[in-house]
Amino acid sequence: MKSHFFTQLILAFSLLILSFQSYADQWYHVELIVFEQLNSVTDEQWPQMNTFDESPLSPGMATSHIQPATTETLLNTASRLNRSARYRIHYHNAWQQPIMRKNSAQAVAVYSENNLIEGNIRLYKSTYLHAALDLWLKQNSRVIDNWSDASPDGIDISAPKNPNLKESRRIRSKKLYYFDHPKLGALLQLTPIETPLAVQIDLEQLETFSLPTEAAPIVDE
Question: How far apart are CA 134 and CA 120, in angstroms?
């Protein structure tokens, strides 16, 4: 029973520390647009698309690590892209999150409603802010069936090949960044904000947790 009590105690303290860390880190409004470049001509060979590991966060979540938000920062930019015959927006979303150190930062899932964009974005800080994007434009569901799904080296080549925008870059807040690729592009902007009220309320509730001044004797049955 004693070990069970102390296990619960350690778990409670761990959750408390993680929540305080999220509260202490600067929060940002993150807005991301992913679009297809319709008029591009390239002879680039696309990589094989592998199965994605599920990202721990998504824009619709409401936790101490991420909160939903409205797409307000890049509305004019999105309108200009939509009016152009050269681009087609597949994804436009926004959320709020704290930016943590690289070893603590979690990826945010990026999925378009039309199922053409799949991937994630990971935001973290070291000396500067960084953004790491891994986005796929799912033009092909599967390669054309051949007599074999293996290369001469025995490597499976049955997975579809699709355009992949994979880039990591140092960024600054309040600036609009363009991530380029022959077949798709991404626009990203981060704006510093106050810690969301919902997160502050959750932390205030956690702060009511306190340790007993003296450990109560426990009798094993």
Answer: 6
- Amino acid identity of residue 198, one-letter, is A
Total residues belonging to the chain: 221
- Tens digit of each residue's pLDDT (9 = 90 or more) over 31-64: 999 999 998 888 888 998 877 788 999 999 999 9
> Minimal CA–CA distance to 112: which of 190, 44, 34?
34
Question: Into how many domains does the chain fold?
Answer: 1
- List pLDDT tens digits, range 189-217: 999 999 999 888 765 554 544 445 454 44
Domain assignment present for residue 110? The answer is: yes
Report how far apart, in Å, the C-alpha atoms of 80 and of each of 75, 85, 93, 140, 163 are: 9, 10, 16, 28, 24
Phi, psi for residue 33 in degrees, rounded to 5: -120, 130
Both structure tokens of 70: 């409205």
Does a structural domain hold residue 9? no
Residue matched to tokens 């007993």 = 212
pTM, two decimal places: 0.77
Which domain covers residue 119, as residue numbers?
26-195
